[in-house]
Write a structure and sequence with these properties.
Strand order of the largest sheet: 1-24-20-19-23-2
Number of strands: 24
Structural class: alpha+beta
Length: 417
C-alpha cells in the first residue's frame, strides 16, 4: 500500500541557495554603504620622510642674504671739471684727511681766475686809496680847527687890548673896529669849520663803513676764487680707506662726476633685500642674528628704505656690539630676521609637502604603522627648520613631510611590506 511522503521544506539546496543570496546581498550593502571608498596608493615607506609632531620652543624668523658695507662712506666727487694731470694714491690706500688724491688741469678756469683776481685786486686798491683819502681829510679838518683856535686866541687878545686902549682914548675908533671885525670873522670861521667837521665826520663814517664792507666782500670772493682753484687738487675729506677709485692720467672728468669714496674705519653695516610681503612686519630696531665661526652675533634694523624694487625692499642693519673679526666689505652673509621670541608651540619639520598642500593638509601615519591618511591642518608661522601647527595635529603623532609630487590627491597611502 502506497504511503504519502511529506516533502521537506528546508532542503540542503534551498538552504545553500538562501545563504548564497544573503551573502550576496550583504556584499552589495557593504559595497554601497560600508566599504572604505577612499582612494589609496601603495608606497614604499623607506622612500618617505616621516617625522614626529613635537611640542617645543619655536622662534619665527626668515633667512635673508645681507652684504657687508662700511658703516660710514664718504663719496668723492669732482667739484670742478678738468683733465687728470697727476694721481698721487691708489685704490685701497689708507688716507688721512687732507691727503691729496689727484690734480685736475683746467686751463680756461686758471685764465679766468687770473683775470678776476687782477680785476678784484685793482678794485681793492682803489677802495683802500679812497679810505686813505677820507682819513686824510678828517685830519685836515682837525688841523684847520686847531689853526683857527690859534688864530682866535691871537685876535681875541688883540681885540681885548685894543678895546682897553680905545676906552682909554689911546687909539682911534677905526683901529678898534678893525680888531673887532677880525675877531668876529675868526669866530664865524671856527663855527663854520666845526659844522663842516661834524658833517664830514658823519659822511666819512658811513663811507668808511661801506668801503670796509666792500673790501670784506671782495676778500671773501677772492678767498672763494682761490679755494676754487685749490679744488683742482682733489683731497681726502676724512680718514679712511680709498675704494672704488679707478682714475687714469689724461682722463677728462666733468663737474660732479664720481671719482671714488672713503670708507671710514668705524665699523660695518649690512644691507639686505627683503621680500615685499614682509614690509608691514619690518620695523626699525627689529632684531636679527647670524652665526659666524662658533659665535652668534646680534644685529638690529637701523634704517628701512620703503621703495619696492623687483619685489623687495632694502634695510640697513647694525651690530649691537662689535662686528666679527675678518669680515670684509662686499662679503655676503645669511642672517636670520627675527619676528618673534621663543614660545611653546606644536611644530613639525619643514619639508617638500608644503609645495603641494600649501600647509592645508598632511598625511598622518596610523598608529598601526600600516598606512597614512590625509588630514586637514592649519599652519601659522614658520622658520628655516619648522612649521608651527595651530590645528589638526597632536604631539607624538607621525606625519609624512617629504614631497607629495607622485601621490596625486589620494586619501590614503598604504605602506608596502
Amino acid at each position: 500500500m502506497d504511503r504519502i511522503i511529506e516533502k521537506k521544506k528546508w532542503t540542503t539546496k534551498k538552504i545553500l541557495t538562501i545563504a548564497a543570496i544573503s551573502i550576496f546581498g550583504i556584499f552589495i550593502l557593504y559595497l554601497l554603504f560600508f566599504r572604505d571608498k577612499s582612494s589609496r596608493l601603495y608606497v614604499n615607506r623607506n622612500q618617505l620622510t616621516i617625522v614626529d609632531v613635537k611640542k617645543d620652543k619655536f622662534k619665527e624668523f626668515i633667512p635673508v642674504d645681507a652684504v657687508v658695507y662700511p658703516k660710514t662712506t664718504v663719496y668723492i666727487d669732482a667739484v670742478q671739471g678738468g683733465v687728470v694731470e697727476n694721481v698721487y694714491v691708489e685704490d685701497g690706500d689708507f688716507l688721512q684727511q687732507g691727503d691729496t688724491i689727484l690734480k685736475l688741469l683746467n686751463t680756461q678756469m686758471e685764465l679766468n681766475y687770473m683775470e678776476q683776481e687782477t680785476r678784484m685786486l685793482g678794485e681793492m686798491n682803489r677802495l683802500q686809496t679812497n679810505r686813505l683819502n677820507l682819513e686824510q681829510n678828517k685830519f685836515q679838518r682837525q688841523k684847520e680847527i686847531v689853526q683857527l683856535n690859534y688864530e682866535i686866541d691871537r685876535v681875541k687878545r688883540d681885540f681885548e687890548r685894543k678895546k682897553k686902549l680905545y676906552n682909554d682914548k689911546v687909539i682911534p675908533e677905526k683901529e678898534f673896529e678893525d680888531a673887532t671885525r677880525d675877531y668876529q670873522f675868526t669866530l664865524k670861521q671856527l663855527d663854520i669849520s666845526l659844522k663842516l667837521q661834524k658833517l664830514d665826520s658823519l659822511a666819512t663814517v658811513e663811507q668808511i663803513k661801506d668801503i670796509r664792507t666792500s673790501l670784506d666782500r671782495m676778500n671773501d670772493n677772492l678767498h672763494l676764487l682761490r679755494k676754487n682753484m685749490e679744488n683742482a687738487y682733489v683731497k681726502a675729506p676724512t680718514d679712511g680707506v680709498l675704494s672704488s677709485f679707478d682714475v687714469e692720467i689724461g682722463e677728462t672728468k666733468s663737474t660732479g662726476q664720481h671719482l671714488g669714496q672713503i670708507d671710514k674705519e668705524d665699523g660695518f653695516k649690512l644691507e639686505a633685500n627683503i621680500d615685499e610681503r614682509y614690509i608691514s612686519r619690518v620695523y626699525v630696531g627689529q632684531p636679527a642674528e647670524f652665526d659666524f665661526g662658533s659665535k652668534t652675533f646680534k644685529l638690529f634694523i637701523n634704517k628701512i628704505y620703503t621703495d619696492v624694487t623687483n619685489g623687495s625692499f632694502q634695510v640697513d642693519l647694525l651690530f649691537e656690539d662689535e662686528a666679527p673679526d675678518h669680515i670684509k666689505r662686499g662679503q655676503t652673509l645669511q642672517i636670520k630676521l627675527i619676528f618673534s621670541g621663543e614660545q611653546d608651540a606644536i611644530i613639525i619639520k619643514r619639508g617638500g609637502f608644503f609645495q603641494e598642500t600649501g600647509g592645508n593638509w598632511i598625511y598622518v601615519v596610523d598608529p598601526s604603522g600600516e598606512f597614512a591618511s590625509k588630514r586637514s591642518i592649519r599652519i601659522n608661522r614658520q622658520n628655516t627648520n619648522y612649521y608651527e601647527v595651530m590645528e589638526g595635529l597632536q604631539p607624538g603623532e607621525e606625519v609624512i613631510v617629504s614631497s607629495y609630487d607622485t601621490f596625486g590627491d589620494k586619501d590614503k597611502l598604504i605602506f608596502k611590506n
